[in-house]
Design a protein that fits this description.
142 residues, eight-stranded antiparallel barrel, alpha+beta
């Protein structure tokens, strides 16, 4: 059992840089900024265990809504990125509400659900999965 965990860890550490390369490319060439699209930067915090780290995102319109491409750090030296489709709806008060889901391996929490708002240069969201829950707080990068 320990050998399989080691192999999975090695595989993930091998694949993470490839995922991060995709994010780096999106960060260097973001879509034109709009009310939702563009680059965002801030932090994430787990309410379940207190873990936290740097968080960045590139948001771009897609055929199915918006793609939120996240890049997070944790533990001071680990990082990873993932893309999640989100549905974005403009509210009457000028705020944009979004929701989306992303499937991770079961050992990492399984299905993550994201819900939040964007208003002006402020991005606030909550995330939740079987093993964790917490918040994202970011500001627009100009």
């Amino acid at each position: 059992m320990n050998v399989s965990r080691l192999l999975i860890t090695v595989l993930l550490l091998t694949l993470m840089p490839a995922c991060s390369q995709s994010f780096k490319k999106a960060w260097k060439n973001p879509p034109s900024s709009s009310a939702v699209n563009g680059k965002w930067e801030g932090t994430w915090v787990s309410a379940a265990n207190g873990h936290h780290g740097r968080l960045r995102a590139v948001v771009a319109e897609s055929a199915t809504g918006h793609d939120f491409h996240y890049h997070a750090t944790w533990g001071g030296f680990l990082s990873g990125s993932f893309k999640s489709p989100h549905k974005v709806v403009r509210q009457k008060n000028g705020r944009y509400r979004f929701e989306g889901d992303h499937a991770m391996p079961e050992w990492a929490g399984g299905k993550y659900h994201y819900a939040g708002t964007i208003r002006g240069d402020d991005f606030n969201a909550c995330y939740e999965c079987a093993k964790d829950r917490g918040t994202f707080t970011m500001k627009r990068v100009k």
